[in-house]
Amino acid sequence: MLLLLAACARPGLDQPAPLVPPPAAEAPPQPTGTSAELLATLLAELPRERALGTPGHRATREWLLQRLRDWGLQPVVRPVAWKAWRKAELANLEVRLGPQDSPASFVVCAHYDAVRGSPGADDNGSGVVTLMALARSLASHPLSAEVRLLFLDAEEVGLVGSVSYLKGLSEQQRTRIAGVINLEAVGYAARHAGSQRMPPGVRAFFDPGDRGDFLLVVGNVASSDLARSVGAALQRQAGLGDAMRVEVFSWVPGAGFLLPDTRRSDHAPFWDAGIPALMLTDTANFRNPHYHRPTDVPETLDLPFLLAVARGVELAVLELAGE
Question: Number of folded domains in the chain?
């Protein structure tokens, strides 16, 4: 902080009073170690074939475990049982940070599987590397509330991993969850006019414009307070540059069945359980022409956009759970 000192005034001379700075306000939590280089490195390392039953699917799980352990974290493997799939092991990975006896806990999640035939850089490699960067940064932050970081499996075949995770929680554990942030395809931006589409009829009551340069925060009515808090933190990060803007849509009624496109990721089972939950997304196929295609590769992502998302998510989590 620069302290401006006025020149000393002699009696009788018309001099301004010395400038006395006001007491410094407590600095808000700041994102720490996330960089564009880190995100690019993680995207390059992430296996490109992550469909269930492929060697890349298993390799991704092992890579996640090794990377997290290298950073001094203790990920836990939570097997996922699914009767319709017996060809390969399915598992969620969980990292728990902060006091596990805190009255409230927060969940941040991203699915690590992909559809067959697509490298899945945006869907959902972008969410995975954002969550990994968050894990790395939070490891060095004191927290006042528990934060659970979930790398979920089998989202692409029906939200299997998130449903399994919720089934494994006791009623007490469920009621402790104060909010969920689900990272679903957060790395693609298109800044030209006409690049953004919306589901039929949505623009009549929510119109973010026709440029795909925003991160969308989706919440149901029960999650509106969480959406307001997380959206505000993301807005502050967006205000530091022009890499992204933020749009918040938190008016989804009930659990989203009247707007089925709002249920297309792992936050939906939390809505079904009555838990406040958000989806952060670049809107996937409503913007990204590479969605679920062989061309969904890291080179198509907008790294400044992804970095702004990662830093904004970290800021939001620190404001929710940091000391």
Answer: 1
Res. 251: pLDDT tops 50: yes
Query: With contact defined as beta carbons under 8 Å apart, do 178 and 276 qualify?
Result: yes
Give dist(CA 294, CA 305) in Å, integer. Answer: 22
Mode of pairing for the β-strands spanning 90-97 and 146-152: antiparallel
The CATH number assigned to the domain holding 104 equals 3.40.630.10
**Distance of alpha carbon 307 from alpha carbon 36, whole angstroms:** 6
pTM as predicted = 0.90
What distance in Å separates the CA atoms of residue 136 and residue 239, rounded to the nearest whole number?
24
Within-domain flag for 119: yes
Q: Please classify residue 8 by burial: count the beta carbons closer than 10 Å to its beta carbon, then call 0-12 exposed, 13-18 middle and 19+ buried.
A: exposed
- Which of 261, 240, 241, 257 has the alpha carbon at shortest distance from 185? 261
**Cβ within 8 Å of residue 49, ≥6 positions away:** 55, 56, 57, 114, 119
Rounded to whole angstroms, how far apart are CA atoms 189 and 195?
Answer: 9
Range(s) of the domain holding residue 217: 44-192+206-321
CB 297 within 8 A of CB 121: yes
Q: Decide if 60 is inside a domain.
A: yes
E-strand ranges in the chain read 76-80, 90-97, 105-111, 146-152, 177-184, 214-220, 245-252, 277-281
* pLDDT of res. 11: 36
| pLDDT confidence band for 290 (50 / 70 / 90) | very high
| Strand 277-281, strand 245-252: pairing | unpaired
Count helices and strands in the chain by DSSP H and E runs: 8, 8
What's the CA gap between 105 and 177, in Å, rounded? 5
Do the Cβ atoms of 74 and 95 come closer than 8 Å?
Answer: yes
Q: Closest Cα to residue 206, out of 285, 257, 244, 262?
A: 262
Rounded to 5 degrees, what are φ and ψ at 212?
-90, 60
Q: How far apart are CA 3 and CA 277, in angstroms?
A: 44
In this structure, is residue 267 part of a structural domain? yes
Structural domain includes residue 2: no
